[in-house]
Amino acid sequence: MEDRRIRVLIAKPGMDGHDRGAKVVARALRDAGMEVIYTGLRQTAEMIVNAAVQEDVDAIGLSVLSGAHMHYFREVMGLLRDKGAEDIIVFGGGIIPDQDLPTLQELGVGRVFTPGASTEDAATYLRGAVQARWQAQGEA
């Protein structure tokens, strides 16, 4: 499995039309050797989860700037469970208050990268998290 590339879906849920950060992260992860699928703006949780399952991704990154992060993360995590795909790693970025981070972690969200975070940190996190996922599944 040494040649297997990490597959990541980057998504912008809801009506928020600001996707510059999502595009920067998508490009950085591609530059780090990952295969990245960017779904574009105004995605529903159902669209995101369906695309992730269809594309057989290792991780989903949600970019939320609208303040509706709790709703979207909760909805995506629930739909992944419903589809038996709860092993897909979910991480996020955007304007997310520190006080919400423990609740997101309880939901199963891996990491949240807020403004000022390094794209290199996101790539490093994903490499480690996905490698652990592959090992747990006997794929590494």
UniProtKB/TrEMBL annotation:
<keyword id="KW-0479">Metal-binding</keyword>
<dbReference type="InterPro" id="IPR036724">
    <property type="entry name" value="Cobalamin-bd_sf"/>
</dbReference>
<dbReference type="GO" id="GO:0031419">
    <property type="term" value="F:cobalamin binding"/>
</dbReference>
<dbReference type="GO" id="GO:0046872">
    <property type="term" value="F:metal ion binding"/>
</dbReference>
<keyword id="KW-0846">Cobalamin</keyword>
<protein>
    <submittedName>
        <fullName>Methylmalonyl-CoA mutase C-terminal domain/subunit</fullName>
        <ecNumber>5.4.99.2</ecNumber>
    </submittedName>
</protein>
<dbReference type="GO" id="GO:0004494">
    <property type="term" value="F:methylmalonyl-CoA mutase activity"/>
</dbReference>
<dbReference type="InterPro" id="IPR006158">
    <property type="entry name" value="Cobalamin-bd"/>
</dbReference>
<dbReference type="Pfam" id="PF02310">
    <property type="entry name" value="B12-binding"/>
</dbReference>
<keyword id="KW-0170">Cobalt</keyword>
<dbReference type="InterPro" id="IPR006159">
    <property type="entry name" value="Acid_CoA_mut_C"/>
</dbReference>
<keyword id="KW-0413">Isomerase</keyword>
<feature type="domain" description="B12-binding">
    <location>
        <begin position="5"/>
        <end position="136"/>
    </location>
</feature>
